[in-house]
């Protein structure tokens, strides 16, 4: 009977060791390579880069070529006034004409609108870079939280297993006492109920751990059933400074940078609308060839005609009156500029508020870690003492159960306080854009 147990033990050890140890750095690396939102942001950046050209700003000429060929079948009857001339009738007269040409239009002046458009395209390209950075930071923060959540859930599983071991020892002891007549059946049944309760809590916690693993596998865009283990420690940065974080947030937070870029885009939109009030001067040039071939029809008609033409010139146009629509567009562009200013101010206020609240939570979490660490040490000592007293009959099952619950609760609070401290640290780094460092 011992050999199967030994084999099972070694198989279990081998299975645990065979599982992938997913480090925090590796999880971040996989996320940056696989996350769809990052790929989309990078693709949008490429599109903006492709759009940022002089031609798209209207600074280069447009050249068009054309070719056409038309055919017709006609019939005619010519009745002269002079009866001495015969009536002429023709049918199935085939005519054709065609032409080719190339034409160019180059805007020489449009109220500097083309230069404004070029600057606007450059700014749009910058916004996609900022959006990519924001996506990267959000992805890292999301994966970080998911990773440390697995550590939290794993430690809670370990905590409940320790509590279950105590309940199991108590169950065996109460069963032995009952069977030899030294304990009551009530104590034995109570121990069985408490053991089942702890077992149910462990099963639920193991399910929570598996759900957390599925969640991070989803974030890493890989098979949801991929088995892995993580490290079981959480390291904190206890030296974060609110003033340094605030300065970094106001300087390099992507959302705030994007708001400032939107302000500049609104300025360019207003300038473009004002530029439309000025005349537009275009240089026109082209070369065209046309041919006309006439079938047998009217007497003395031209059989064929070919023409060649090179043309060039200037064209000036200005909007004189369009129902006040241009004036209305300028007004709306000014309002859009005001909205962009309001949005930037509102975001700046929200970031300051979020930073203050998160930093306060961070400092409180660090203090709670100290307190809960002390409580956990005391609770661990109490459970050892209480179980020894229970074994020799100096304490009741109820007293042992209460001490056991306190110990499990103390470690749970310690785990939660450490997790909350890490989560607030991650949020502080995200807000200040230091999470990429």
Give a description of the structure.
The chain has helices at 2-18, 24-34, 36-51, 113-179, 185-219, 242-252, 254-275, 325-391, 397-431, and strands at 20-22, 62-78, 88-109, 228-230, 280-293, 304-317. It is α+β, with helices and mostly antiparallel strands and 437 residues long. It has two domains: 26-60 and 113-279 and 323-431, Outer membrane efflux proteins (OEP); 62-109 and 283-317, no CATH class. The strands form two sheets. It has a four-stranded antiparallel beta sheet, with no helix packed on it. It has a two-stranded parallel sheet with strand order 1-4. The chain is elongated and about 150 Å long.
For the CA atoms, what is the radius of gyration? 41 Å
What overall geometry do the principal axes of the alpha carbons give?
elongated
Helix content: 55-70%
- Topology pattern, helix = H, strand = E: HEHHEEHHEHHEEHH
**Total beta strand runs:** 6
Specify the structural class. alpha+beta
- Give the biggest sheet: 4 strands, antiparallel
CATH topology of the largest domain, anyone? Outer membrane efflux proteins (OEP)
Assembly state (oligomeric): single chain
Strand order of the largest sheet: 2-3-5-6
What gap, in angstroms, lies between the N and C termini? Answer: 56 Å
Strand content: 15-25%
Number of helices: 9
CATH architecture of the largest domain: Up-down Bundle
- Which CATH class of the largest domain? Mainly Alpha
How many domains comprise the coordinates? 2
Specify the CATH homologous superfamily of the largest domain: Outer membrane efflux proteins (OEP)
The pLDDT mean sits at: 90
Q: State the low-pLDDT regions, or none.
A: 1-17
